[in-house]
Amino acid sequence: MSVLDPKKTYKSLKKKGFVDSINKSPDHKWVDFFYDDKYVLSTKISHGNKDIDKHLIKQMSFQCKLDKNKFIDLVNCPLSKEDYIQLLNQKGLLD
């Protein structure tokens, strides 16, 4: 079973170009992804220390327009920012 650390996930997404969102929540951090200064997508991460379980990984991967394994690769670094942009472009999300 795959689980992700929320703090590591947040730091990793920030390194991949996600930025803190203006959407604020007392129980979640929102991060947005922009390409060429255009909004593309958002995902949210819990403020807590509890691991991100497979159900939440699936939700976050959907929000990030990836399958579960690609999202895990995005967080754990085998999938670079450039590769992520290429995948989003192939899906027609960066037009």
Please provide a written account of the structure:
- The chain is an alpha+beta fold and 95 residues long.
- The chain has one domain: Metal Transport, Frataxin, Chain A.
- Helix content is 41%, strand content 21%.
- The protein contains four helices and three strands; from the N terminus they run αβββααα.
- The protein has a three-stranded antiparallel beta sheet with strand order 1-2-3, with helices on one face.
- The longest helix is centred in the first third of the chain and has 10 residues, at 6-15.
- The radius of gyration is 12 Å and the shape is globular.
- The mean pLDDT is 93.
Please write out the topology.
Elements: H1 6-15, E1 18-20, E2 28-35, E3 38-46, H2 54-63, H3 68-76, H4 81-90
Antiparallel strand pairs: 1-2, 2-3
Helix pairs in contact: 2-3
Helix percentage range = 40-55%
Radius of gyration using CA atoms only: 12 Å
Q: Structural class of the secondary structure composition? A: alpha+beta
Described by strand count, sense and barrel closure, the largest sheet is:
3 strands, antiparallel
Mean pLDDT: 93
| CATH architecture annotation name | 2-Layer Sandwich
CATH topology tier name = Metal Transport, Frataxin, Chain A
Q: Report how far apart the termini are.
A: 35 Å
H/E topology pattern: HEEEHHH
Tally of DSSP helical segments: 4
Name the strands of the widest sheet in spatial order.
1-2-3
Provide the number of structural domains: 1
Shape from CA axes?
globular
Give the structure's gist in a few sentences.
The chain has 95 residues and is of the alpha+beta class. Helices cover 41% and strands 21% of the residues. A hairpin with a 2-residue loop joins β2 and β3.
